[in-house]
Write a structure and sequence with these properties.
The protein is α/β, with parallel strands linked by helices and about 260 residues long. The protein contains eight helices and seven strands; from the N terminus they run βαβαβαβαβαβαααβ. Helix 1 crosses helix 8 and helix 4 packs parallel to helix 5.
Length: about 260
Amino acid sequence: MSNLFDLTGQVAIITGSSRGIGKAIAERMAEHGAKVVISSRKAGPCDEVAEEINARHGEGRAIAHPANISSKEELQSLVDAAMAAFGKVTCVVCNAASNPYYGPMAGISDDQFTKILANNVIANHWLIQMVAPQMIERKDGSIIIVSSIGGLRGSPIIGAYNVSKAADFQLARNLATEFGVHNVRVNCIAPGLVRTDFARALWENPDTLKRATATTPLRRIGEPDEIAGAAVYLASPASTFMTGQALVVDGGATVV
């Protein structure tokens, strides 16, 4: 059974992996044998995570390469660095995202809405198109988009973000349809509320947190490491017959 989740020989790029869910995914993938490429906007935090992983699992298990997902050139540089270091990319985790606005959609500026769609949807499309050709040539690859249960429901405060996450579900379905004949799989993870800096505005206030968890079956929010296992599964041999799907990890929030 352990071979089902063995990532030995795999190389994964994880965006937004200097903290939160992305960091947890990188740590767990490395633990299961993968080589990982740590990336976020700032070099320092990326270097720290890569150093921690190398100290734990051996030198060369992780490299760091900063990239701003809003820059197509920087994303291409990220892919080039991964290929130069490891010779291939077998998995990409599109985890980095933006949400510069909280409030009703009537109040969002055009620039804010454009940034959300560009970083949460178009940047994923860019990165996937950069890694897909060598996956298609090798007839093997797993593409993972970290979406959100926000893409399944409405919200009075994060509506634009939810629109972008719903688009990610469809991006995965479309690309799964295109890439499936080449044995390249595309799936989403849809976390519920997780204790990250990114979601701090939704859980830091005790009253907001109480409302968010009052009807959730597990009566709590998630921790970053509780999302990482889903990514390991989607990258591993255990999930080779799964594509175009959204794996919901939300403590039961969407069943009530």
